[in-house]
Amino acid sequence: MEYTKCWLEYPRIRSEEGRTLTLQNLAEGSVGQSAEKELALGLRGLYGIGLTEGGPEAAVTLKTDGALPDGGYVLHAAKGSVTVRGGGAGVLYGVFALLRHLQTAWCGWDELTLEEEKRPSNDLRLLNHWDNLEGDIERGYSGRSFFFRDNQILVGQRTVDYARMAASCGVNGVVLNNVNVRAAAVELISDRYYAPLRRIQEILAAYGIRMYLSVNFAAPISLGGLGTADPLDGSVQSWWREKADEIWRNLPGLGGFLVKADSEGQPGPHSYGRDQADGANMLADAIAPHGGRVIWRCFVYNCQQDWRDRVTDRARAGFDNFMPLDGKFRDNVTLQIKNGPMDFQVREPVSPLFGGLKHTNRILEVQIAQEYTGQQRHVCYLIPWFKEILETDLMCREGGSRVSSLIAGPNQGMAAVANTGDDPNWTGHDLAAANLYGFGRLSYDTSLTPEAIAREWLRQTYGRSPEVEETLLKILLSSWHTYEKYNAPLGIGWMVVPETHYGPSVDGYEYSRWGTYHRADRNGLGVDRTARGTGYCGQYAPALAAIYADLETCPEELVLFFHHLPYTYMLKSGVTVIQHIYDTHFEGASEAEAFLRMVEGLEGKLPEDVYRRMHARFVHQARHAREWCDVINSYFLRLSGIQDDKGRPIYA
Ligand code: GCV
Q: Taking 90 as the threshold, does the pLDDT of residue 425 lie above it?
């Protein structure tokens, strides 16, 4: 199927057809060759300029520089002469940066004047694919997998273009398969799949990307025929050691394993009375001789809760399970922690584990697959949200403890659950590609602003049209807040249809086993997570815990996450909780309607197929946002009996 190249289309800036530039390529290895290929592609597209081999006087020099850290680069451009020096993949990143600057400045080749030095903010910048071997994607909203189909591995030009896109925004690691490792996926670490996996690995490696695999903790049983997967059992340990030798013999350079253990039905060390460190360390020891890393997820909670039980609080689970183990993990283990304590809701506080852990490597896990944020049918540019998370100060260290600094440093970083599939535009909604691009850029450089990232992406994707750029920028930058307005109010989350996680269902999860409750009654709603309630607040450093526990200082957008409040409680914004619910839902729905009108103004200014795809999604979003508004407002009017003070239509 034909597909777009997203932001790597290289629309023509001006024609210099027939011109050639000399290139001296001193960049090493397959990454050096990719850097040259990408430069050639970019220059041909942007200007029609060709490249020819040159010597020391060449117009462009690419060079590996061992003094720079992996991924760092120095870029110098003046009067048509360009030098890019980089450490490891840095030379490739420098080339992509050069092409990006030419497009954002929208200037001729000779006109760019630039001195830029960059080092990645994060060591690990990972995409996690939840692709299944059968070809479906768990929580995938852009078609089917382009890695797997019918238990076969797909390798082709699309794999190469995927690697190009990922590298162009700074991604340096990719987990190919779903963390729920079932059926044939268990056999990814066997002879059945090594040969095609190696081909994918080589493609990724040429773009500075390490491949990782999700593995099943019980593989010694299902694959090895042992009677146990107990991490302290000698036969299990030697099975994994021998397996690791075999894996790395076949896939040298593999980054390591991603593991979801003791979570939502996946096996893990708890089944044997062992803790999470016992499990992670056993795997870490097996793969350490090969330089492998275990990325161990902290999404461990009781998904069989009784809704009648008001003491157990799912939000506490990550911290309660992992905090006592701080310092017990091997160096080649990194814990991967979801941004919030629940599960990728439109708004949550930052997980207290980021601040609590002092002696353990950490990765911040976010989700660009919009599971709870509109499933790539609603526009929801998530980079402002991720930026807010990175800037949150957890008040756990003298001199500042923003999340961005807590996850910086060796063997730490960021991971995103990917939003790609085999749709012709890769991400379902054309504008969802901004999340893919934006995650990479932000994880590479956490100082970037969401606006700067969006502008870069728009300019590279749609060329230079001020009207297109300003209109889509406005939509992107307000889209997360708009989505939040018509969703569950004030941080409480979870008012979605169970299973699909799409569309409003206020009580969908209220009487279920998932530990996700809003506790609404005729007087009020919210969960008391202060010391009087579940005590979750106490998992933060004392200064921050005090801020959340006090209604005077608790950030308003999270107030129902931390407190149970009457509908008549007066918020600092000057309206009651119930009036806030009505107002924001009406606002959200009319903003979605306004998005549609704005996009309609772009007819004839965007490529026709892009316009058609986008328009259909905005029509749906406007209608669906109205549905959200009406369901939520009607539910709370019926329950509270309190009228909207503006008298708008609500279906009592
Ligand atoms: C891959 C949520 C999703 C699941 C997902 C899980 C996880 O519960 O709904 O589909 O499983 O998170 O992050 O492991």
A: yes
